[in-house]
Amino acid sequence: MVKHPQSGDRPTKEPSANMKKVLSALLLLFLIADSVKSQNTTSSDIDGQDSAWRELFNGKDLSGWQANAHPESFTVEEGVLKLHGKNGMSHLFFVGDSGQDVAFKNFELVAVVRSRPGSNSGIFFHTGRELRKGKYLNKGYEVQLNSSNVEKRKTGSLYGIVDLNKSPVDETEWFEIRLRVDDSRIRVFVGDKRVIDYTEPTMPIRQPARAKRLLDSGGGAIALQAHDPNSIFYFKQIRIREIK
Description:
It is built from one helix and 15 strands; from the N terminus they run H-E-E-E-E-E-E-E-E-E-E-E-E-E-E-E. The strands form three sheets. Strands 1, 3, 4, 6, 11, 12, 13 and 15 form an eight-stranded antiparallel sheet that branches. The protein is mainly β. It has one helix spanning about 15-40; strands at about 55, 65, 75, 80-85, 90-95, 105-115, 120-125, 130, 135, 140-145, 175-180, 185-190, 195-200, 220-225, 230-240. The protein has one domain: Sandwich (Jelly Rolls), CATH 2.60.120.560.
């Protein structure tokens, strides 16, 4: 009787040196890809248990919005909101149906925007109507929108707190900017790239002129900035959802 060798009797074949190199390379590529993914978190990675989206701009008129000065700075043309501070700086506040500034505390906001070359604007949050030097919003944070060479703080900057010295996009083409506020953490995405991940410290240190550049425990208003006569920005979508 011929005895057939059992599987356990067969010698284990060691991987070749070339195979070991291939496996090592594949493992390294996997680790690099995982690291890049964690560093460039996209909006789909942070949705969590959030409420439904709410459109803030209806694409027709300025219903739900109110200017604090120079209302002529804000118009709707062919379904697009145009911001042009032709007579000086002004801010457009979201008031909804109440006629009063709507306060948002924890939220995610998405806007689709573009600009004329050489333009400056911004999205303010946790803000209010109080002014500094008669024109600057004195409270809260600003996410910078900027296609000008004069202003060194570029698009996506958390103005005066975490500033970017290079723009991540061509602002003259439509692009998406996304802002997420989750308690003390503020994240900004331009396109699919996270450009700001800032956590406000317990006792923030601010320059005297920006002493109120802080998160408010009760939340604050959303406002869009018409900066100056040479700056024009367009918004074709603005939506928000609150974070539970």
